[in-house]
Every structure is written in C-alpha cells, then in structure tokens.
Design brief:
Pfam family, one: AAA_22
GO molecular function: ATP hydrolysis activity
Number of strands: 5
Radius of gyration: 25 Å
Keywords: Membrane, Transmembrane, Transmembrane helix
Shape: elongated
Order of helices and strands: HHEHEHHEHEHHEHHHHH
Helix content: 40-55%
Protein name: ORC1/DEAH AAA+ ATPase domain-containing protein
InterPro entries: AAA_22 (IPR049945), ExeA_AAA_ATPase_DNA-bind (IPR052026), P-loop_NTPase (IPR027417)
Oligomer: single chain
Strand order of the largest sheet: 2-3-4-1-5
Low-confidence stretches: 71-89
Length: 317
C-alpha cells in the first residue's frame, strides 16, 4: 500500500465515517449547527436530507460525539454509558438506530436496548410502551434530555415512524421527553408527503438539506483528510487533478474518497509523489458511479467545431 510512500499514518480516504476526518465546510457546519440548536430547544422532530454519499452518517456521528463531548468517558457512538456521573455527567441521553427496517415492536425493543431497559423478549407492545414511558420520565426527573437518531429513515415503515411520533407526544410542562432526528435520502421527503403521516410532518421543527462539496472546498477537503492521516507536506493533488476530481464526482464526498484513493494508488504505482489529472481520470473510469467529465466533452466539441471550420475554409478557397 502507499502509506509509507506518501508519508501517511493511515488511509486518508477510507469510507468509514470516522469523526476525526469531519470536514467543517460551510454546508456541513451549517447542518451541524442546525442539529445542535434544535437539540437545545428540545422540540419534537428534526430532519436532515441528503443524496446518497453526501455524508449524512458522518454528520450524525459528529453530532452525537459533540453532544457527548462533555462526558468523562464515552463508549461507542449512540450507546449509553449509564455509569457516567459527576460534574461532567451527560445532559443528553442519545440512541442511534442504524437499521431502518424495523416494524413498530422491533423498533421499541431497539430503543429499550439503547436505554438499557431490561425487558423480556416476549413482552407485549403495551407493556413495552409503558416501560419506555417510565424510563423517559425518569430521565426527565434527572434533568436529562433524550434524543434518538434514525439513519436511512426513508426506508423505515410508516407505522414505525408513527409509533415514534406517539412517543414524542410525551412531555412535561416545559418540554418534550424525547426528540427524534431523521437522517434520510430525498425519498424521505416523498414519504412524508403522504396524508397518513401529516401529523408527523407538522412536528418537524428544524430541517436541513445536505449538499456536496463546492469546487472551492474540494482542495481544502483533500488537504484536510491528508493532514489528519499524517501527511506533512502541502498537498498530494495538483490543481488540474482537483478540478477534474470535482467534475467527475459533483462534490459527493463518498465518490471523492473512492476516486482519490484509487488515484493515490495509481500515482504510487508510477513512483510519483503527486497525483496528476490522468490518475484521477483513470480512477474515475474504474468507478461506475462517477460522472462524465463535461470539460472533456467541451474540448472535444470545440475541436470538432474547429475541424469543421477549417474544412469549410479550405473548401471555399
């Protein structure tokens, strides 16, 4: 692998949503700020929508890590450390549900597991709801806020979303007992247009559209990830390579990571210390989800037009 060749400590363009690689470009920072403000207000539902590969899961994990940053010790993201106490005791109790294919009872059991409620697997839904309600009330008495994050929410059954809405109906005189953050693809908006979930739709108090990287952010994104991975120089990607990388990915972070990784491998195979445009072009050609380079089409069109003009000029002589 190319780590030693480029002086890297770890892979800079891994697809794992590692929060240490979080890049605070305008779009992602606004999304994170929206989540933090919404969490502090304590209102019912929050919605984050973004296309495939635009970094929703990484934003979700960064959000949860930020909420948990004042804990003395932490466990895996979304898993509660019930033993934490003291002056930095968590104000937020968070739950992360990555699997959206849960029918209502399975979803409630998943929440019970996240909140460390001991229930029998044969418990009926009524008793399960009762146990969850009691736990939410206990958290509220302790001054803790409960926040549930659902990833890939566009795939969750509407009945399960409705059960969550009913749980968010629980409230004290001051605030809700539970908040829900929905992370989903644009199809989530289509599902929420259905009449059967209009009450849930009305409960969405904050929402944000997550887009890809702008052209002027691409170079900083690459430098940021390389620096986190241990690179000590300026950059490994030439200007033409960066421009081409944006054109063939439209700024979608997951595609950027895939093609940048392949381009580094190609540069390494040639013994070069910098990634050139042709490395990116070859890497994009090996990535079915990449976009066509519109600049290349423009050049080919201009060349064809020039050839026609020259031919006409010769014929008119």
């Amino acid at each position: 692998m190319y780590l030693a060749h480029f002086g890297l400590r770890e892979l800079p363009f891994s697809l794992t949503p590692d929060t240490s690689f979080f890049f605070a470009c305008t779009n992602y920072q606004e999304g994170l700020n929206t989540l933090l403000v919404a969490a502090r207000t304590g209102e019912g539902f929050i919605k984050i929508v973004g296309e495939v590969g635009n970094g929703k899961t990484l934003l979700c994990r960064k959000f949860l890590a930020t909420l948990s940053s004042d804990r003395e010790t932490t466990t895996d993201i979304g898993t509660q450390d019930g033993g934490v106490s003291g002056r930095h005791a968590a104000k937020f109790i968070t739950a992360y549900i990555p699997n959206p294919y849960l029918e209502p009872r399975s979803l409630l059991l998943a929440l019970a597991e996240e909140f460390r409620i001991e229930v029998d697997s044969s418990i009926d839904q009524h008793m399960l709801l009762k146990a969850l309600t009691l736990t939410l009330l206990n958290f509220a008495r302790e001054g803790k806020r409960v926040l549930v994050c659902l990833d890939e929410a566009q795939a969750m059954p509407l009945e399960s979303l409705e059960v969550l809405r009913l749980l968010t109906n629980l409230e004290t005189e001051k605030r809700k007992l539970m908040q829900v953050v929905l992370f989903g693809q644009p199809e989530l908006d289509e599902r929420l247009k259905q009449n059967s979930v209009r009450q849930l739709r009305q409960r969405i108090s904050f929402q944000y559209q997550l887009n890809g990287l702008h052209r002027d952010e691409m170079d900083r994104y690459l430098r940021h990830r390389l620096a986190v991975a241990g690179f000590k120089g300026e950059t490994l990607f030439g200007s033409a390579a960066v421009s081409l990388l944006h054109r063939v990915t439209h700024g979608t972070p997951r595609l950027v990571n895939i093609i940048a990784h392949k381009a580094l491998m190609l540069a390494y195979a040639e013994g070069r210390q910098q990634v050139l445009a042709r490395h990116v072009r070859k890497a994009a050609a090996d990535t079915p989800e990449s976009y066509q380079d519109w600049m290349r089409r423009v050049w080919w069109g201009a060349a064809a037009a020039l050839s026609i003009l020259l031919a006409v000029g010769i014929w008119l002589r």
